[in-house]
Amino acid sequence: MTDPAVTLRLKDVSKTFGIVNVVDSISFDVKAGESVGLVGPNGAGKTTLFNCVCGQLQNDHGAVYFEDQPLNGMPTYRRARLGIGRTYQRTEVFPDMTVRNHLLVAERVHSGTGRLWKDLLNMSKPTKEEIEVSDRVMDLVGLMELADTPVAALGLGHCRLVELARALAGEPTLLLADEPSSGLDERETAAMSAVLRTVQRERGTAILLVEHDLEMVSEVVDRVVVMDLGSKVAEGTFDEVMANPAVRYAYLGESA
Amino acid sequence: MFETFFGFAIPGIPFGCTYAVIAVGLVLTYQATGVFNFAFPAQAYAASLVFTALIQSAHLPSWLAFIIAAVIMSPLLGLAFDRLLFSKIPNTNTTAKLVTGISLLVGLPSLLLVAFPSNYYNPPSLIWDINTVYLTFWEIPINGAQISSVVVTVLMLGALVGLLRFTNIGLQMRGAVESRRLVQLDGVNAGGVVAVAWMVSSFLAGMSGILFSPNFGEIQSQNYALLFVFALAAAACGSFRSLPKTAIAAVLIGIGQFLFQGYLPTTGFLFTTVLPSFPFLVLAGALLLMPGLRNLDSSADPLSSVDPPLPPTAAASRLPQMDRMIKIAWYTVLGVFVVSMLTWIPKDWESVLNQGLAFSALFLSITLITGMGGQLSLAQATLAGVGAFTAAQLALHLGLNFLIGGLIGAVVAAMVAVVLAVLSLRLRGLGLALMTLAAALLFDTAIFSNQTLAGGSGGLNIQAKWLGLDLNNPNGHLYFIVAFLVVLLITGMILFIRKGTTGRVLGALKGSETGAAGIGINLTKERIMIFALSGAVAGIGGVLLVIQENVANPQSFNYAFGLIFIVIVVTTGVSTVEGAIQGGFGFVVIQKLLGYAPARFADLTFVFFAFGALTYAAHPEGILEFQKRRSYQRIERFFPSAMKKSEENELAIGIAGGVSDD
Ligand SMILES: Nc1ncnc2c1ncn2[C@@H]1O[C@H](COP(=O)(O)OP(=O)(O)OP(=O)(O)O)[C@@H](O)[C@H]1O
Ligand SMILES: [Mg+2]
């Protein structure tokens, strides 16, 4: 099963809350540099699956592999350091910190060069490279003007961008984006799609995208996995999947 | 055999019943309103004090006193707490709710002491007299107070069950216990339900106070705090959720306490140390082991992101010129202060301000753990004591220099803090606060009260030969110079940490633990580190304090001070180093000034700060910090032209560093 081209491999991943199989034996791969959409109606278990990949939840059965390394039992922060970046459906920003500090802290954690003794000797100022990286990322997502604004002062749309930028600052190999367009207007959504495409094409980052906005999904992803009630109901290109009667039934409630 | 067993167990039942009343009241408010009412023992104290005063001083018949104190005053007090304070705090702001409760716990008894300055002895029994034996079981005499405890508890819990089961508001309250948010979404008048829950539980508080007071010779607020801890242990055993489990646990704890007391040999470590620590051990054990305590605070609340963000601290929203002016002002104040201390300040005031320096150091540990780490620790006074007594013991037994011993003491305090951090890794907000409280109480009973370790009630005198330097000479300024340098060093250290990687990482942790872990931050490691740092700083503060006071007195480090310190620092500002320093000086200066007033006003210091801390919900940055921001804004409006923003200045100031840095 060793395959350097596979970034993320899910094998029979299941998660149960009480007696409900919220994620039920899900298997699929995300190849290096590939962009995969994960869609499904509300409550399908998409966010739960993300949490199993990131380590916020431990899956009950099955296994998650990242670049051939089994992740089971590994805490969230170590998975992040391996190169899994993520954004959250309910934003998880650091309200007191400025946009730039979000990126700087992510970079510093990623490089692992922060030390308490360096702080005490006043040697922890952001390096030139760190500033450059944060500049580049903020430029990419369009947050340059807001660099020194505390995030508490920003709206939801900007917070989603901050989360994305923060994840990118850690230079992930795999980016998990959980409904990045929810709460954004049409123009912002279009901008978000453009950013995700650039990230994938120019940085070679693999993307797993959960999204209700099917237009955005069709623009961003190479392939789609459809979930309903915890199970995978279809997988294929966007058009293939949308033509699948099981998907239409699950997703739109239309009878097949 | 059986006789002995029951002989030990039965007297525990009335105690257990009283714990049950309190614990059930606590869980009821907590579940129905989301507030864990730290003021509960203060309410119990208030009711029994008023009840006794009405009978003994105003000579009212006891039924009338009971109606006034328990039936009227207690629920009204609860209603006032709810309407004036807690209903204004967003449900997700765990720290604000805790701080408000703790402020009431500190402030209310002090306020009552000012209002009722005389001592009240032999509180009257409710219904049956404590000095009369009414029944005997297995030859065990049962007195009136014991009977009334059991009878009244059974009646009250019965009435509560009736209320919850058969009335409309009870049904809604039960719904709230199941899911508060659901009740609100259901369009039930949530405010009304919450108010009733507060009144019911406050009535229970008053009742428990009145019921229990005959067990003490005198009415003192500390006694009710102990009662509270027993109830806390019971509530924790019920996961702060289940009313029946809580009530049963409370009775079992009461019985267990008396069984241990009966069966243990009356000498030795177990009896003198472990037995008094029994409730704290139960509390800590429940916090460690009971499932479901991880999510005690509502940080997992899906609607929490709806709450408005905290305002940025005063410094963050300032213009660069303003920054420079403030920096200059700070240096000026600092210079004037040092020169004055060395020249014209009278001796008694110099010693007061020296003490202020010691408290500043201690309070800076709160800036670290609460302001920067976002964790509410109620054991900071304890950690200070650990530092101080370690140094004292090293000097006493090994003849080690007290200042070197002090550094070792700081390390030991840091290690104790690390143990505490490791034990409470799964706890947040309320859970952590309770765990640190349990630790503080454990140290009070097991270590600080130990004759060999802490010198008993008089403490350990600091001998001049321990110091090496002539620190205690009232005619010199050496203590001032050393303490000043230490505080300066700690301040500089904190400012650098805050500017550096650690500061940013802690800011991330405080903002969102999920988000922080998601970028690769090791929450466990950071948490342990900030506890260690804060413990070390607290230890140093404790060492400075005992040198200044010439004695390491366990009373200076008991759990109550842990609470008071939080209240003080929260009032002056928990997120800045100035906050801690102003708190340190404010505390001693106000106390000194009140020394000129009649003795009954001595406790007003606590009242001042407690009322200050009540504004925490509205001004989480501290009222001083809030006033500062307002005045800066006024100045900025007044001189608009002089305050143009310039990039260069900002950089220059950013690098300069200093006392009032960001
Ligand atoms: N911690 C939890 N405990 C119990 N049930 C949970 C928990 N988290 C999620 N669930 C349930 O699992 C199901 C799947 O939730 P999940 O958030 O993964 O769905 P989703 O596909 O992301 O939906 P949405 O599109 O609304 O974001 C839901 O029914 C939810 O109520
Ligand atoms: Mg979701």
Structure description:
Chain A: One of its GO terms (biological process) is D-alanine transmembrane transport. Chain A: GO terms for molecular function: ATP binding; ATP hydrolysis activity; L-isoleucine transmembrane transporter activity; L-phenylalanine transmembrane transporter activity; L-valine transmembrane transporter activity. The complex is a heterodimer of chains A (256) and B (662). Chain A has 256 residues and is an alpha/beta fold. In chain A, 39% of the residues lie in helices and 24% in strands. In chain A, the strands form two sheets. A six-stranded mixed sheet of chain A has the order 6-7-8-3-9-10, with helices on both faces. A four-stranded antiparallel sheet of chain A has the order 2-1-4-5, with helices on one face. In chain B, helix 2 (12-33) packs antiparallel against helix 11 (243-263). Chain B has a two-stranded antiparallel sheet with strand order 1-2. Chain B has helices spanning 2-9, 12-33, 40-56, 62-85, 94-115, 144-166, 168-178, 180-185, 190-212, 221-237, 243-263, 269-274, 278-289, 320-342, 347-372, 380-398, 402-423, 429-448, 451-454, 464-467, 478-499, 501-511, 513-518, 523-549, 559-572, 577-594, 604-613, 623-638, 647-656, and strands spanning 133-137, 140-143, 460-461, 551-552. In chain B, strand 1 (133-137) and strand 2 form a beta hairpin. Chain B contains 29 helices and four strands. The chains are: A alpha/beta (256), B mainly alpha (662). The A-B interface holds A 54-56, 75-78, 80-81, 85-86, 88, 90-97, 101-102, 104-106, 108-110, 114-116, 118-125, 150, 152-153, 163, 166-167, 170 and B 302, 305, 309-310, 312, 316, 493, 496-497, 499-505, 507-508, 510-512, 514-523, 529, 657. The structure holds adenosine-5'-triphosphate and magnesium ion.
